[in-house]
Design brief:
Elements (H helix, E strand, L loop, with lengths): L7 E10 L9 E7 L2 E7 L6 E2 L5 H6 L3 H26 L8 E10 L5 E9 L2 E7 L4 E3 L3 H11 L4 H23 L1 H4 L6 E8 L6 E10 L5 E6 L2 E2 L5 E2 L3 E2 L5 E9 L7 E6 L7 E4 L19
Antiparallel strand pairs: 1-2, 1-5, 2-3, 3-4, 5-6, 6-7, 7-8, 9-10, 10-15, 11-12, 11-16, 13-15, 14-15, 16-17
């Protein structure tokens, strides 16, 4: 199955806390395909569950899938509890709230190249990271170096993870893409709109180029001046998801009104047959504020 020209990713995030609030699970694990949650497990339900309709096909093709993967999460949950206690003692910390995170995954890029990563975090800081090219673990702190020496000394341990990230993870990614192709491999072009406002203080104009409803996530949007990419004074929001699984983004620029005709919002996306160049609109009065769900935290 062709995965399409865009990049695709399969990532997992597991999180455990030693002293959760009443009723909250102490262990949660999520799986993401192209940034969207497709499976969920927590220590309250103790069952791996689907979060997307297309995962029903997996169970039909592989009847043992859900039981097998649930048992893996049971094992993870147990290991995380043991590791949290071991790290608390290693850091000579008191009891209370401590957290352990495990993040790993792989990427199949549009050019056919592959990527993979794996790392652990403890109490919100990077604890140890896997270097799959050198087949070793990278430990930034003395407490993590204990784990590094232990894991690096296990025969075949690091090679097993390298093989998983470069082969098995990619195979599962392609498999999930085939199951969810109507959703994951669809192409939705961006709706591009322009707005502007006059800055009373200095007489400059601020122009905002909004991109909405596009899929896949990869998009190239820049300001150009006289046909050349113009990065100076450009502000942009991160590409963020919409409720329907598509994405939105924005970029803005302040300009001298006398030079308005020199600028364009240049957009490239798989959903566009050719690049789009949007001219700046004339300022018709103060524009509304950027929608709250577009604002990014500092």
């Amino acid at each position: 199955m062709a995965a399409g020209a865009s990049s695709h990713s399969l990532k997992y995030f597991s999180f455990s806390m030693s002293d959760p609030s009443q009723g909250q699970p102490h262990f949660v694990s999520l799986g993401f395909v192209d940034g969207q949650v497709f499976v969920h497990y927590d220590s309250n339900s103790r069952k791996l569950q689907s979060r997307v309709p297309w995962m029903e096909k997996v169970g039909k093709d592989d009847p043992q899938y859900w039981d097998r993967e649930t048992q893996k999460k049971w094992h993870q949950e147990e290991k995380f509890s043991e590791s949290l206690e071991a790290l608390r003692l290693r850091y000579n910390q008191s009891e209370g709230l401590h957290t352990l995170q495990w993040m790993y995954g792989c990427e199949l890029r549009g050019d056919g190249s592959k990527g993979g990563f794996m790392q652990y975090g403890y109490d919100g800081r990077t604890f140890i990271t896997f270097d799959k090219e050198r087949l070793t673990w990278v430990a930034p702190h003395p407490q993590a170096q204990i784990s590094q020496r232990k894991w690096d000394a296990i025969p075949g341990y690091n090679q097993k993870y390298k093989s998983y990230l470069e082969k098995e993870c990619i195979e599962w990614l392609v498999r999930y893409l085939s199951y969810g192709k109507e959703t994951l491999l669809r192409i939705e072009p961006p709706e591009v709109t322009m707005s502007s406002k006059m800055e009373v203080e200095d007489g400059m104009e601020t122009h905002v180029c909004r991109l909405d409803g596009f899929y896949p996530r990869e998009i190239n949007a820049v300001w150009t001046r006289d046909g050349e990419v113009w990065l100076q004074d450009t502000f942009r929001g991160s590409v963020a998801p919409n409720a329907d699984g598509t994405f939105h983004a924005w970029l803005s620029i302040p300009i001298d009104p006398q030079e308005r005709g020199r600028y364009r919002c240049h957009v490239e996306h798989d959903g566009l047959q050719e690049p789009l160049d949007m001219a700046l609109k004339e300022v018709g009065g103060p524009a509304g504020t950027i929608p709250w769900n577009w604002l990014q935290g500092m």
